[in-house]
Every structure is written in structure tokens, then in C-alpha cells.
Amino acid sequence: MSADRPATRGPEYPAMLPATLEATAHPGGGRARRSLRDWLTDGLCVLFAFVMGVVSLWVRDPDATPSISVTLSLTVSAAACLSLWFRRRWPVQLAFVLMVLSVWFPHASGASAIALFTVAVHRKTATVVPLLVLGVLSPLVQFRIYRLEPDTPLVYWMAVGIAAALSVLAVVWGMGVRARRQLVVSLAERAERAEAEQELRVSQGRLRERERIAREMHDVLAHRLSLLSMHAGALEFRPDAPPEEISQAAGVIRASAYQALVDLQGVIHVLRETEPEEEGPQPTMADVPSLVEEARAVGTEIEFDDAITGLEGVPALLGRTTYRIVQEGLTNARKHAPEAVVHLAIHGSPEEGVEISMRNALAGSGARPKGAAPLPGSGVGLTGLRERTSLAGGRFEHGRTMAGEFRIRAWLPWPS
């Protein structure tokens, strides 16, 4: 994790956000507890409902309806205002009860409007519409019970229109708040998903880089170390060899060990995620003959048929992939059939691409020296070659033939 990246996710001031945002973003977390903002909002709603009830006392005469006492009207209206404290837990039931009560207790009209607004915020449209219809129709009855002065049709319908408009305004405002909260949750989910996808891409990139490193380590170090092991084995089992051969074998061992250390150092640079100042030289198609001669020097018998036209114009990727395929094939032959003859053929041209064919007997004609252990294999070399060939746009095949030989065949396109 970088130093400038925050250690925790989420808003800077979570107490100032509605708790329903967290509940909507994480539906499996149960009912959300009220945040500080929710406590303040609920308190202001109760206070606003009381204020609207007091204002209605100035507009209406509390003794206008003899069938309902003033004390009962004020008590019910006050209870309706206080019930808004529980508007988040039972919004639909509370809105229905308050709108019905507001028909006979007009001082509770403010509380019913806030309850309707709450339903629009927290419930879907299918639930809001019936309550909105009730809120629009209830003034028709309310202003018949509590007549206004002057008691004329114009005043009546103006009052009904204003009350209905307030109900519509409360619903529209509440649905706007709900839409905004849904947008916030959607953007938060999209941001989290984008961050997760970015982390996945980074993880996949690291995995591909590690696979590339493992492939390079196998292709390079396995070849070098197998050469070193073959020469060391020759010195071990032929102590009476002429001094010239011992000196030559020791020189090959020294050169192979040095080159293996150089290659290993390059791999370590990548593992430490440090960019070297310049990339080391990569093998090309022109290095294949020297690779064959190097294998012959340790005793591997090779029949090499080289028929590449336009060798000087071979692209770098094509030459490097061809070199690695030949290198892995010779290493496998040295490990599993040290006495077998390797038949190697490379044909190609810019028009036809490059075809590589290697085959050798499954077991050589001679036996290993007594006490010599077979060279270990990782079992991923051929898989790595298949991946290399696929990345280069070619085809790769390997397996036993009917003639009792092991065969590797690859075709690589010649990039234009």
C-alpha cells in the first residue's frame, strides 16, 4: 500500500450522513442505528410539526367543532407530532394513521405531511401513490368538517388545492431525496467495484510477471545448470581423463556457473521490483548454432538442419522464442535421454514463418554411469514453451511418436 493512500475507506464525517445510506449499501447488516444527523433531523421534524400545529391555532377556531373538545384535539395533535420520532421504523403505518387523524384533528396536518414525506424517502413508488391519493382526498372531508371563513365555494376549493399541493410537494421532495441517495449508493458501489477491478488487474499483472520470471528462470538456469552438472559428472566418473579434457570441462563449468549467476542476478532485479538501468542482451536466432555447439561439447549428439532464409532480418521476439524452444528441447534430451541422438530442424522464411522440429529416442543406447542420479526436472518447461509459443501467435505440440521417440514441434509466425 502506498504511503499517500488512506488506510481506511468511507466518508470523512459518517455521523453527518443518513444511516439509511449504510443500510442500503450493505443490506445484510441489519437495521442501521441512527446517526447524529438522524437524531437532529428527527428532532427538527417533531419541532416543525409542533410549529405548524401552533400556526393552525391562529388560523382556525379550536371551538369550531363542538363534537371534539379542545383538550382532546390538542392532546391528539401533540401525540401525532411526538409520534414522528418513530417515523423511520413504521413510516407507512404512521403516515396512514396521521392522515386519517388529520381529517378530524387539523392541528396534526403538519405531522401527516412530514410522515408522507418520510414514506416517499424510504419506500417505493407503489407504496407512496395510495398514500398520496389519500393525502389529496382528505382535505375534501377536512374542510367540510372545519369550514373556513368566508364559507364560499371559492375559498373551499382554494384551501383544498393548497392542501393537496402541499401533499404532492412533500411526495416529490421525498422522492427526490430518495433518488439522490440511490445515486450516492450507486456511485459508491461503482467506485468500490472499480477499485476492486483495479486491484484484480494489478494482481493479475503481478501473477503474469511472476509467471514470466519463473519461465525465464526455468529456461535459462535449467539449461546452464544441466550443462554444469553434465561436466561435473564427467569429471567425477572419469578421474583418469587427460588433463586437456579436465581443463576444458573445468572451463565450461566455470563459464556456465558465471553465466547462471548473471542470469540469476537479472531475475533478482525483477523480483525486487527494481528496474535495471538497461536490459541485458537477449538471445537471437543467430545464437542457436552456438547453443547447439555448446550442447555438443558436453557429449550430446545432435543432427542439426538449419534452413532459415533472411537470418539477419529475423525479428527479436521470433528469434528469442526459437532460441528458448531449442534450449528447452536440448535440456530435456540431456536430462531424460543423455545418450540419444537429437534430430533438430529449423526451417522458415518471412512468407511461411518458422517451423522447429526436435526428436530423440526415449532412451539412449548407453547407460548412465554407475551411481549417477538423473537430473531433476521441474515439470513446467514444456508448459512454459506452450505459453511462449501462444503469446507469439504460434502453435506448439509435444509427445511420443509411434516410432518410440519424443518429439517437439512448433510453428511461429514471422511478424511483418
From TrEMBL:
Keywords associated with the record: ATP-binding, Kinase, Membrane, Nucleotide-binding, Phosphoprotein, Transferase, Transmembrane, Transmembrane helix, Two-component regulatory system
Reactions listed under catalytic activity: ATP + protein L-histidine = ADP + protein N-phospho-L-histidine
Residue segments, region Disordered: 365-384
Membrane-spanning segments: 39-59, 65-87, 94-119, 125-143, 155-176
Record-annotated Signal transduction histidine kinase subgroup 3 dimerisation and phosphoacceptor domain positions: 209-274
Matching SUPFAM superfamilies: ATPase domain of HSP90 chaperone/DNA topoisomerase II/histidine kinase
InterPro entries listed in its UniProt record: HATPase_C_sf, Sensor_HK_TwoCompSys, Sig_transdc_His_kin_sub3_dim/P
Pfam families membership: HisKA_3
GO molecular function, one term: kinase activity
Keyword Secreted: no
Its EC number(s): 2.7.13.3
Protein name as it appears in the record: histidine kinase
Protein species of origin: Amycolatopsis plumensis
